[in-house]
Write a structure and sequence with these properties.
Distance between the termini: 54 Å
Shape: flat
Largest sheet: none
Radius of gyration: 19 Å
Order of helices and strands: HHH
Helix content: over 70%
Number of strands: 0
Strand content: under 5%
Number of helices: 3
């Protein structure tokens, strides 16, 4: 193990932590709730991507004149 890995100042990515979580102890209701939260996060990220894309398109139009 590299010393930098052991004393990393960068926090671990939350998505990595979520993907490594053991699902065994969770009930079906908890799993369904988790799926709904993940779907909501996907929708939030997609909306942000669309906003960024629209902003970029407007900037491109402005600077290409």
């Amino acid at each position: 193990m590299d010393e930098d890995d052991f004393f990393s100042s960068k926090p671990q990515d939350p998505l990595t932590l979520v993907s490594k979580q053991d699902l065994g102890p969770l009930s079906q209701d908890e799993l369904a709730e988790r799926i709904e939260m993940l779907k909501a996060e996907i929708a939030r990220v997609e909306a942000h991507m669309q906003a960024v894309s629209a902003h970029r398109s407007e900037a491109d139009k402005l600077f290409k004149q």
